[in-house]
TrEMBL record:
Protein name per its UniProtKB record: CBS domain-containing protein
Organism: Micromonospora orduensis
Keywords: CBS domain
Domain CBS: 95-148
This protein's record includes keyword Magnesium: no
InterPro entries reported in the protein's UniProt record: CBS_dom, CBS_dom_sf
Short name of any one Pfam family annotated for the protein: CBS
Length: 148
């Protein structure tokens, strides 16, 4: 089985996209992160869901999670308002990890190796021009490897 057999299509984001829109896409797809692509469709990095939360949460909640208890549930529902007018680029860490990518003919063992080495639960499948044609999630890879 090859990467192209396991790859799924997924929405991507660009660095200039509003962070709120990226958060909506992330929630709708139920993924651990989103693949960030350039204007040519070439993957560059992953926007982790935890990075979205980090920018949305007040710093005092991050410094001491016990302080989050003082926020009632009604206020917690609007916590993503903290993102404001930021873009995806604003949410990305300064030392952005490169997104692992494989060719469509990579074996599942190769995909697993790349994913494990990079410690990222998403791998982009790219064509010869490095344009993304699909993605493989950790869940999807494990499902195929375990035959479920």
């Amino acid at each position: 089985m090859r990467a192209s057999d396991v790859a799924i299509s997924m929405d991507t984001v660009t660095e200039d996209m509003p962070a709120r829109e990226a958060a909506r896409i992330l929630a709708a797809q139920d993924l651990p992160g989103l693949i960030v692509v350039d204007t040519m469709g070439r993957p560059s990095t992953v926007l982790a869901g935890t990075q979205v939360l980090r920018m949305a949460l007040p710093s005092y909640c991050q410094d001491d999670p016990a302080l989050a208890r003082v926020i009632d549930e009604a206020a917690a529902d609007v916590i993503l308002e903290g993102i404001g007018d930021r873009t995806v680029a604003d949410l990305l860490p300064r030392n952005r990890p490169g997104l692992p990518a494989v060719s469509a003919d990579a074996t599942l063992l190769e995909v697993a190796s790349v994913m494990a080495r990079s410690n990222v639960p998403l791998v982009a499948v790219v064509d010869r021009d490095q344009v993304m044609t699909g993605a493989i999630t950790l869940d999807g890879l494990l499902d195929r490897m375990l035959g479920t």
